[in-house]
Automatic annotation (TrEMBL), chain A:
It comes from Apiospora kogelbergensis. This is Centromere protein Chl4/mis15/CENP-N. Residues 143-157 have a biased composition (Polar residues). Residues 422-434 have a biased composition (Acidic residues). One of its GO terms (biological process) is chromosome segregation. Residues 143-165, 322-361, 408-449 are annotated as: Disordered.
From TrEMBL, chain B:
Keywords: Centromere, Chromosome, Coiled coil, Nucleus. One of its GO terms (cellular component) is nucleus. It is found in: Chromosome, Centromere; Nucleus. This is Cenp-O kinetochore centromere component. The lineage of its organism: Eukaryota, Fungi, Dikarya, Ascomycota, Pezizomycotina. It comes from Apiospora kogelbergensis.
Length: 531, 304
């Protein structure tokens, strides 16, 4: 093994062409996750002539004899392409393709690039497989002197007019400089189809080498025979998404191929969170990352409320101002703007008739219900605007709210019955903790991330504390679960189960957060747009 | 004919569907026409005069006068709308009153809306809105509540400059030297904020528009000359690379790539081109020449 002798510890990144032996379970698992069609289209991509440096298949070179081989290597790329195209046309099992890759054409090893492609392809096939958290870049004040820089923590510069600019290759280079030398990372940048963002996949190995030794199975067992797991088995993957033209960044939760503890993956995430602003900063231009209390599995929703568009600070009912529907609002349009629902109602004449009938006080119960239903729909339209439609594919699956209002002030009208109904419809669970139970809970080991985030939201602004210290403030925690939480609430409003006018604003999702503490009926720290 | 023989029912159904669809489209367009005609008729002087005379007379029966009053009301609405449209198209910043639907909203839901009209490609784009409310107790200071400004326009910076929050009592002893400065900053200046924001919005829209025009011109010129002479390197691709549309990347057909940086107003700040053997200053000179504004680069594409 000539390679062993040149493996020296280094701080460089892992090269994309680094082969991983196919005997490695983790690598095979990555391939096995994919479906047959996407696996085949990916393999055809590997066989593209431009990709040969990164994923070379085993080809017949005439010297070795592959007579009794189950998968004899092809003599040329074209032949191999034909084999896989044929597989694409006929039916078969996924197993067949994976076996051919692992034991046939790439028996010498698949490269890190190929594994990255397989992993990214899995993400495209299953968009909900990762949980994303949105962070915002915030410009820090340039300290006026050296002393000031050393003494005090850096403050955010609220008056800054700069928008951070993301340059993929510079960013990766800078991020590499932040990575510790005993950890090796492989970076893969990709542009998901149909989404305005850059996806950066970071694959981390615990190894000081950036050669084959890092991912090698055999050498590890040779050197330390007892070592059952290689560093590759303890690898971790984390995704960072950079939306175009937006000062936000989305971070996925980290996945590991082997058995790692939750604490380990959390610390990796913390490392990355700390590294990103450093990689983004330049001399005299420092940035920090600020959590924006939004976590969801849905990238489309993230792009909607933390993306480049107009809807960032105009959610819920305000979305009619941001919407990009066909209704033109040009000042050159002479037609009077029509109120919502008036033109989509097919029985407009009928409704008019009903109104006249009501005037003559011959109101039937049927008409009454119909009018009420229409009213509820109008109220829902007013509160939710064009957002929170069940079919808009922008669903948030979990929302955590901590209500801190004193019971008499704002909690009075929040009836318990309504909550119960939401429970059923949203297929959700709701927790109601008062102070005591929360106190009891606290010492029990590690607290969940939601608790921590809620605490942070609570500590976020300490204005108007005091004042009504004597009021009874039960701590109420609401958790909404569902495939599309706010669409569910909208449907409840439309059905007349939730009273639309008296529903608090945070139930419409207009704040664009999934975790928040409510004070005086509003999400704290979001007196408005959360600027 | 053969296909019809195979499935006559389906084809008839298809035909009917098509007919229905075309009729529906016709109805829609006629409805639109009707609306426009109505709105024009309603605000015309003779119509209004006729209506006003009728309503004054009151000699006709009650049913008729009811209709006249209704028509007059509609006409008034239409006149008001037209006046609003006139203001909107002429002044480009207009204010509107909005009610916050949240029952727990501050200041009992009163919200001041600012509407920014921006032109792009000879038409009005959807207006940008900024909604302000008064969340601070014992103070009439405004705060940005909601807005539809895209994140590439530094709204937060402008708001903290021109609409600073009122000082809380605890912040007083922080630094004495800046006291005067801070006192001055305490004053909120809504007109200045609106003007500055409009300027940013227009400049942003203009930059995006110019880059779009350049893209189109580059596409056209590359199509025109692709067949005839391939000796000169053509610009294949160009586009904004940052959020604010201040940096433009260029790609030539011979593999050169460049980056052009412009300032807020579209003036050229600098440009670098990377060729096969290091920096290619000749290409920069060729492209920019003596031009100071990015608009002038259009001539480069038209000339080739």
């Amino acid at each position: 093994m000539a390679r062993l002798s040149v493996s020296v510890p280094t701080t460089a990144r892992l090269p994309s062409s680094l082969p991983v032996e196919t005997s490695n379970n983790a690598a095979v698992k990555l391939l096995n996750r994919l479906s047959r069609p996407s696996l085949l289209s990916m393999v055809l991509d590997w066989l593209d002539p431009s990709n040969q440096a990164l994923c070379p298949p085993l080809l017949q070179d005439g010297e070795e004899d592959y007579e009794d081989d189950f998968y004899p290597p092809a003599s040329s790329l074209e032949e191999l392409r034909e084999i896989y195209s044929d597989m694409q046309q006929r039916k078969g099992s996924k197993r067949e393709v994976v076996d051919r890759i692992v034991e046939g054409d790439w028996r010498k090893g698949v490269t890190l690039y190929q594994l990255a492609m397989a992993d990214v392809q899995y993400l495209y096939d299953h968009p909900g497989s990762l949980k994303w958290t949105a962070y915002k870049f915030q410009r820090l004040k340039t300290p006026s002197s050296e002393d000031a820089a050393e003494q005090q923590a850096q403050k955010p510069d609220s008056g800054s007019m700069d928008i951070p600019r993301f340059h993929p290759s510079t960013f990766v280079q800078n991020l590499q400089a932040e990575v510790l030398p005993d950890v090796k990372a492989h970076y893969n940048l990709d542009r998901p189809p149909g989404m305005p963002l850059w996806l950066l996949r970071i694959f981390i190995l615990d190894s000081p080498y950036n050669t084959g030794l890092a991912a090698s199975h055999r050498t590890a067992s040779n050197r330390a025979a007892a070592a059952a797991t290689t560093s590759f088995d303890a690898s971790r993957t984390i995704y960072i998404a950079f939306p175009d033209a937006s000062p936000h960044v989305y971070l996925s939760n980290s996945q590991s191929t082997g058995a790692t503890t939750a604490g380990e993956s959390k610390s990796l995430r913390t490392l990355v969170v700390e590294g990103i602003p450093k990689a983004m900063s330049r001399p005299r231009e420092r940035y920090a990352l600020r959590p924006t209390n939004l976590t969801t599995r849905n990238l489309a929703e993230l792009l909607h409320v933390r993306g480049a568009g107009r809807a960032n600070a105009a959610g819920g009912g305000w979305s009619i101002y941001a919407g990009d529907d066909k209704r033109t609002e040009s000042p050159l349009n002479p037609a009077l703007p029509t109120p919502p629902l008036s033109d989509e109602d097919p029985s407009e004449e009928l409704a008019n008739g009903a109104r006249k009938k009501r005037a003559l006080s011959i109101r039937t119960t049927h008409d009454k219900y119909r009018l009420e239903a229409k009213r509820a729909r109008l109220v829902a339209q007013a509160r939710f605007g064009d957002s929170a439609k069940a079919d808009d594919a922008k669903g948030i699956e979990r929302v955590d709210i901590l209500v801190e209002d004193s019971f008499s002030a704002a909690g009075g009208h929040r009836g318990g019955g309504r909550r119960g109904v939401e429970d059923e419809e949203e297929e959700g669970e709701e927790e109601m903790d008062n102070d005591n139970s929360l106190q009891l809970k606290k010492p029990k080991g590690r607290r969940s991330g939601v608790d921590l985030a809620l605490d942070r939201a609570q500590e976020g602004d300490d204005d108007d504390v005091g004042g009504d210290t004597w009021a009874w403030k039960p701590k109420i925690r609401l958790t909404f679960h569902g495939s599309h939480v706010f669409a569910g609430i909208r449907q409840l409003v439309e059905a007349g189960i939730v009273e639309g006018e008296r529903m608090p604003g945070w139930m419409t999702g207009e704040e664009g957060v999934t975790i928040g503490a409510v004070r005086y009926g509003r999400i704290r720290g979001h007196k408005g747009s959360g600027l | 004919m053969s296909s019809r023989n195979e499935s006559p029912d389906l084809s008839i159904a298809d035909q009917l569907d098509e007919e229905i669809a075309s009729l529906r489209a016709q109805v829609e367009s006629l409805k639109k026409e009707l609306k426009i005609q109505t709105s024009t008729l309603m605000v015309s002087d003779p119509t209004r005069k006729l209506l006003q005379d009728r309503s004054k007379k009151r000699t006709v029966n009650s049913l008729d006068s009811g209709h006249v009053a209704e028509l007059l009301k509609k006409s008034d609405e239409q006149v008001a709308h037209q006046q609003q449209c006139l203001y909107r198209s002429c002044t480009s910043i207009t204010a509107l009153k909005i009610r916050d639907p949240d029952p727990n909203a501050v200041d009992s839901g009163n919200v001041l809306g600012l509407r920014f009209e921006v032109m792009s490609k000879a038409r009005f784009v959807r207006p940008y809105y900024v909604m302000l409310n008064r969340p601070y107790p014992n103070s009439r200071h405004l705060r940005v509540h909601r807005h539809t400004v895209p994140p590439c326009v530094p709204l937060a910076g402008l708001a903290s400059r021109h609409l600073p929050a009122p000082k809380t009592s605890k912040g007083g002893a922080d630094n004495d030297a800046d006291d005067d400065d801070e006192l001055q900053q305490q004053q909120q200046d809504l007109p200045r904020f609106a003007r500055a924001l409009r300027r940013e919005l227009v400049r942003y829209q203009n930059r995006v528009g110019i880059i779009g025009d350049l893209q189109k011109a580059a596409e056209l010129s590359s199509h025109q000359t692709s067949g005839s002479d391939a000796d000169a390197a053509m610009i294949q691709n160009l586009g904004p690379v940052d959020a604010e549309a201040k940096q433009i990347s260029f790609e030539w057909s011979d593999g050169k790539s460049g980056r052009l940086i412009i300032d807020d107003d579209g003036r050229i700040v600098k440009m670098a081109v990377q060729g096969e053997n290091g920096r290619d200053r000749g290409a920069v000179r060729e492209l920019i020449g003596g031009n100071v504004h990015i608009e002038k680069l259009m001539g480069q594409f038209e000339g080739t």
